[in-house]
Fold:
Amino acid sequence: MIKTMKALINGQVINLTLEESTGDWVASVPAPQKSSYTQKGHYYPVSITATDDSNNSTTVDVTHATLGESLKLQVKEKVAPVITILAPTTGSYLATATPSISFSITDDDSGVDLDSVVVKVDGVALEGVSHSAIENGYSFSVTCGALADGEHTITVDAADHDGNAAVQVTAAITTDTVPPTLTLTAPGDGLYTNESELVVSGVTNDATSDVSVTVNGKAVTVNADGSFSAAVTLTEGENVITVVATDSAGKTAAITRTVTLDTAAPVFVSVSLTPNPVDCGATYVIRVKATDD
Structure:
């Protein structure tokens, strides 16, 4: 008669109890806390030993021709992988039509199923995704094909080896490869003035993103219609005025104007009238010498 029935699972010895009503030996056993996917063969091997009253024993395990498959315990985890888009982050404005996308996926149990990883831009899957191992997962990178200027959506999907799908991660980006337009309505290049304060005005625009403007490095307000104006204080002599328009992607347009401030009035050096006196109706010459620095 069988005296004991013991099972060995993942290093744990389990004593089974004879069920009188059926004659079966039974035990309720907590499953291992980790997925079996990382085990050799993707299962936990189970061995069972029956011992009779005479201490004769028989053991069956996964190598048994008939019962071996029944002794392969598969354990599945329930925690999904975590996806993190590293770049570009949502809200980014990019000055290139072929941005590089980088992201990581981690799963600390059954592991990331590389065949499940799908990266899409505007619903179209990207090819050529490369990966390298990191702690508990992988880092990934892929370069987009040429994108039109405007808004785009990146999505990343993945699952682990136990079929747990990660929450899809998205990033909304904007590509902007064209610099903003910039037109100066004032001042004209080469202007001479005796006014020490000068108004610089113009208009800027960008089809894809907002534009900021600086005049000689100082930010000025851009109105909703793209117009702007700013007062500049001139110094005596030649002044170089630089206006730069910058869009959200960092593309720039620049215009330079040269304005000269001259507040010194001309100085007379000499005046002569020749001949003087002059006959009525005759011609005389006025000769003037003056300076203006």
About this structure: The chain is about 0% helix and 50% strand.
